[in-house]
From TrEMBL:
<keyword id="KW-0808">Transferase</keyword>
<keyword id="KW-0963">Cytoplasm</keyword>
<dbReference type="GO" id="GO:0005737">
    <property type="term" value="C:cytoplasm"/>
</dbReference>
<dbReference type="GO" id="GO:0005524">
    <property type="term" value="F:ATP binding"/>
</dbReference>
<comment type="similarity">
    <text>Belongs to the ATP phosphoribosyltransferase family. Long subfamily.</text>
</comment>
<keyword id="KW-0368">Histidine biosynthesis</keyword>
<keyword id="KW-0479">Metal-binding</keyword>
<feature type="domain" description="ATP phosphoribosyltransferase catalytic">
    <location>
        <begin position="52"/>
        <end position="206"/>
    </location>
</feature>
<dbReference type="GO" id="GO:0000287">
    <property type="term" value="F:magnesium ion binding"/>
</dbReference>
<keyword id="KW-0328">Glycosyltransferase</keyword>
<dbReference type="GO" id="GO:0000105">
    <property type="term" value="P:L-histidine biosynthetic process"/>
</dbReference>
<dbReference type="GO" id="GO:0003879">
    <property type="term" value="F:ATP phosphoribosyltransferase activity"/>
</dbReference>
<comment type="pathway">
    <text>Amino-acid biosynthesis; L-histidine biosynthesis; L-histidine from 5-phospho-alpha-D-ribose 1-diphosphate: step 1/9.</text>
</comment>
<keyword id="KW-0067">ATP-binding</keyword>
<comment type="function">
    <text>Catalyzes the condensation of ATP and 5-phosphoribose 1-diphosphate to form N'-(5'-phosphoribosyl)-ATP (PR-ATP). Has a crucial role in the pathway because the rate of histidine biosynthesis seems to be controlled primarily by regulation of HisG enzymatic activity.</text>
</comment>
<keyword id="KW-0547">Nucleotide-binding</keyword>
<keyword id="KW-0028">Amino-acid biosynthesis</keyword>
Length: 213
């Protein structure tokens, strides 16, 4: 089993389509029958695993998957011991702090002593610490944007791409704390053959990217 590459990608979500497309553009063919959790490539020694994005860094750290495609936001928040081997340029977004639109926001010092709801406690904590702001981090698992309007928190820290979700919840974006795109992560325990396969794959990915620019 140490002579194939197992590649984990998101099963269904914002990363899925571009992840599949990238693998196909690298000339790797496989049958992705609906609902499959695992599939073998037919013309390259690889298997594709279809997972929830949040599980990918852990699988790669453990070596259950050798490679993974995830948002850098998810990879960084997970703090897993994996190698970021390539930036893929899709699924661009940012992690931002938002406050109620009527809040006369002047700057980071306004967040001192306030509570901020987020699903990214680690990245937010790091940012606050670097900026010497002490605020309470309120970790919640979803629907972060409604927190201020229901009085659960003073502010939010969440993923933004166009900003329309913030707007429709009466919020405005006031600070960007992290810029993200999809990245390829790799296990730190690859066999020599797997490292060679990874090099071949990266060579193909770079060729695809050059052809597009
Ligand atoms: P899963 O069911 O796999 O856990 P999810 O709901 O956590 O999926 P998606 O919403 O599909 O995840 O987002 C996957 C990644 O896409 C995000 O982690 C982020 O890197 C990127 N992304 C790009 N734009 C956005 C956006 N507008 N909102 C959320 N994520 C975005
Ligand atoms: Zn997820």
């Amino acid at each position: 089993m140490n002579n194939i590459l197992r590649i984990a990608i998101q099963k269904s979500g914002r990363l899925s389509e571009d992840s599949l497309k990238l693998i196909k553009e690298c000339g790797i063919r496989f049958d992705n029958g609906a609902g499959k959790l695992k599939t073998a490539a037919t013309n390259f020694p690889a298997e594709i695993l279809f997972l929830r994005d949040d599980d990918i860094p852990g699988y790669v750290e453990d070596g259950v998957a050798h490679l993974g495609i995830v948002g850098e936001n998810v990879s960084e928040e997970s703090a897993r011991n994996v190698e970021t081997v390539h930036r893929l340029g899709f699924s661009k977004c940012r992690l931002s702090i938002g406050v109620l639109r009527e809040h006369d926001y002047q700057g980071l010092k306004d967040l001192e002593g306030k509570s901020i709801a987020t699903t990214y406690p680690r990245l937010l904590g790091k940012y606050l610490k670097e900026n010497n702001v002490s605020a309470q981090i309120h970790e919640i698992s979803g629907s972060v944007e409604i927190a201020p309007s229901i009085g659960l928190a003073d502010a939010v820290c969440d993923i933004v791409s166009s900003g329309s979700t913030l707007l429709s919840n009466g919020l405005k974006e006031v600070e960007t704390i992290f810029r993200s795109e999809a990245v390829m992560i790799a296990s730190k325990h690859l066999s020599e053959q797997q490292q060679e396969l990874l090099d071949q794959l990266l060579f193909r990915i770079k060729a695809v990217q050059v052809a597009k620019n």
